Amino acid sequence: MTEGILIGLTTALSFQNIFMVMIGCFFGTIIGMLPGLGPMTAIALMIPITYGFDPATGLILMAGVYYGAVFGGSTSSILLNAPGVPGTVATSFDGYPMAQQGKAGKALAIAAWSSFAGGTLSAIYLLFMAPSLSKVSLSFRSPDYFALMILGLTAIAAFSSKGQFLKAMMMVVLGLMLASVGQDSLSDITRFTFDNMNLTDGISFVLVVMSTFAMSEALTIILKRNDPTAAAKQVSLTELGSIRINKEERGKMYRTIPRSSVIGFLIGVLPGAGATIASFLAYGMERNLVKDEEKEKFGKGSVNGLSAPETANNSACSGSFVPMLTLGIPGSGTTAVMLGALLGFGIQPGPRLYMTNPEIFWSVIMSMYIGMVILLILNLPLIPYIARILAVPKNYLIPLILFFSITGIYVMSFNNFDIYLMIGIAVVATFLRLYDFPMPPLILAFVLGGLMEENLRRSLLLSNGSWEFLWDRTLTVCILVTTILIVLWHIYKTFTKKKS
Amino acid sequence: MNINTTKIISLLFFIFSAFYLYTAYQIQVFAFDENAPFNARTFPIYLGYAGLFFSGLKLILPDPDTIKVEHRTLEYKKTALLIVIAIIYGATILKVGYFLTTSLFLFASYYFLGERRWILMFLLSFPFVAGFMYLLHGVLEIYLRDPFLKSIGVMG
Questions:
Q1: Which of A72, A207, A446, B151 could cross-link A33 (Cys pair, CB 3.0–4.6 Å)?
Q2: Hey, are the CB atoms on B47 and A394 less than 8 Å from each other?
Q3: pLDDT band with cut points at 50, 70 and 90 for residue A237
Q4: Per the structure, how many domains does chain A have?
């Protein structure tokens, strides 16, 4: 292993590769900040360029773009409540309220430090645990995945405020229903398309996230323009605040970062799970672990609530490299794009990658440390400038948010049906938001819908239609018991609060 | 039972779930798949029942935290105008082209939101869209169809 680390270090520290990490991080941050253009788009755009380099350099460049885009996505989540990628949806829960309170600079600084710490810690985990973790991830079967999805969706109860559990579950079902539109993945039978060709491929994630977050946020701001409380919020938006993190906030982050990085990394290792589940679970876990006083601040600008998903999504990014490099199974959509690029180089990732191409395996791991440092150096000084986006008057900001949202959809499909659909979903989402129906559960369910159906299908087919698969394996039972405990805990908390 | 807007939304969701469930049962599957343990309609059917269950619970259970929305303070007119402009934008973008429709969409939105600084409105629409279009089309090589620019000879 030492030899491998040295080979990786030599490759990663070459001038060309450091430069590539810098370019990747910078380019990724800019692309990730634009709502609608996430890491997948950024990496996809990079693929033709990487073919001009050797595989290690190409992969290092793509990895830099990946971290940069995830950080950039957090920036738009915090400043505009417009998460460009699913992995940063949870960041907006507390990042955006913090920005609304005039602490945009601080929120971005917390996000930058948490991303840095999460990425660095997970790179250390990756270094020592990659070989054994790949074996653990192999032991996950379809029933375990299905149970994990149920757990992820039930954990949403932790995100909903008091009395919102049923509303959150209704939004989960709505998200799953939206995800079921289009062709069935196995039989290619079209469902819920009503003979409309535009719906055959289903509804795109970017469309749903743009309409339920960015567009409906813009419409809600206009709708509540004369609301005295909303007006007060808008005034405070022009205050950027300091980027300094005080001792008390640092103390909170010291406790949150290690546990969130562990959960982020472990979830990232599971093929198909990735940064989204990691950030949601880390947020839910953090909310359950903090004191009652801090718990009340969740969703209103909590430091723990911002630090946890930010740490977890960056950890998951590194974790998702484990199944890709060691098993040849991508841990996320983004690593799936990278896997395609590696195959284009003629390299087959898998357990033998250690032996056949050690410089690729280890240089990517080593470049992660460099990438995290560069990302921090690049982003911290730029925070005051980035945060100035908030000083733009609402009369300009709202049309610009609508412009970025619509453009994001238009450049993906070049058809006006998607624009109409987006407006329709945004109008419904705005109305639902007025009555406190939470949108994050809908997004998570939409992302997990396809995977959930696939794993349920496999489980039911393997057990010949019997639901016994739910208690056949210890791992499945453990996950389901955790899910039941979360529901029971929520019911208990609701009743004790009512009594008090 | 106290009838409020949340209950009405839940009732609408209940009806929507019933319609979804009905449509799920209508999904045509292959003959050999009809009696399979899992086919294209299985998961949607579960979802339909789940929708009925949760919205039904919301309808039946008491709702102590009623959300009250002050409709008088809400800006329905401007919001509706913005939605109409966005629909017109969507309807014309393919025929007229990205540059002109996007610039006009931005300009009209600024105007209807109460902005009257004409120079700033112009700068943040036409030149801004031109710059953004250059980034997408020129730098990132994302093709943007634009019949208007083509007709005046700016785009090939």
A1: A72
A2: no
A3: very low
A4: 1
Which band of pLDDT confidence, cut at 50, 70 and 90, is reported for residue A367?
A: confident
Check whether A354 has a pLDDT greater than 70: no
B56 and B94 both lie in a single domain: no
Q: Do B50 and B82 share a domain, yes or no?
A: no
Judged by a CB distance cut-off of 8 A, whether residue B82 touches chain A is: yes
**3-state class of B97 per DSSP?**
coil
The answer to the question of residue B156 being in a domain is: no
**Are A435 and B6 a contacting pair at CB < 8 A?**
yes
Tell whether B65 is covered by a domain: no
Query: Between chains, do B79 and A167 touch, taking CB under 8 Å as contact?
Result: no
B8 in contact with chain A, both atoms CB, cutoff 8 A: no
Which range among A51-60, A90-99, A196-205 shows the weakest confidence by mean pLDDT? A51-60
Cα gap A335→A325, rounded to integer Å:
10
pLDDT at B68: 76
- Write the pLDDT tens digit of every residue in B107-136: 999 999 888 899 999 999 999 999 988 877
Same domain, B56 and B86: no
Q: What is the pLDDT of residue A425?
A: 95
How far apart CA A123 and CA A400 sit, in angstroms, is 37
Judged by a CB distance cut-off of 8 A, whether residue A177 touches chain B is yes
Specify the pLDDT at position A153. Answer: 79
* Beta carbons of A130 and A325 less than 8 angstroms apart: yes
CB B13 within 8 A of CB B51: yes
Domain identity same for B103 and B142? yes
A398 near B CB under 8 A: yes
The shortest CB-CB distance from A222 to any of B23, B82, B110 is to B82
Highest-pLDDT range among A72-81, A168-177, A217-226: A168-177
The answer to whether A120 and A126 have CB atoms below 8 angstroms apart is no
Expressed as residue numbers, the domain containing A21 is 2-499
Same domain, residue pair B129 and B87: yes
**Burial class, A187, CB count within 10 angstroms (exposed 0-12 / middle 13-18 / buried 19+):** middle
**Using CA atoms, how far apart are residues A225 and A239, in angstroms rounded to an integer?**
19
Nearest CA in chain B to A168: B54
In a 10 Å sphere around its CB, with 0-12 CB exposed, 13-18 middle and 19+ buried, how is residue A133 labelled? buried
Domain that holds residue B123: 73-151
Task: Find residues 415-474 of chain A whose CB sits inside 8 Å of chain B.
Answer: 415-416, 419-420, 423, 427, 430, 432, 434-437, 452-453, 456-457, 460-461, 463-465
Which residue, B16, B36, B60, sits at the end of a domain?
Answer: B60
Burial degree of A48 (CB within 10 A; 0-12, 13-18, 19+): exposed
B47/B78 same-domain check: no
Is pLDDT at A86 greater than 80 in this prediction?
A: no
Query: For A155-203, where are the alpha helices, taking DSSP H only?
Result: 156-159, 165-179
Whether complex ipTM tops 0.95: no
Regarding whether B147 and B80 lie in a shared domain, the answer is yes
Amino acid, single-letter form, for residue A281: L
Of A166, A225, A419, the CB nearest to B57: A166
Number of domains comprising chain B: 2
pLDDT recorded at residue A231: 46
> Which residues face A190 on adjacent strands?
A183
pTM for the whole thing? 0.74
Digit-coded pLDDT (tens) for B17-49 = 999 999 999 999 888 888 888 999 999 999 999
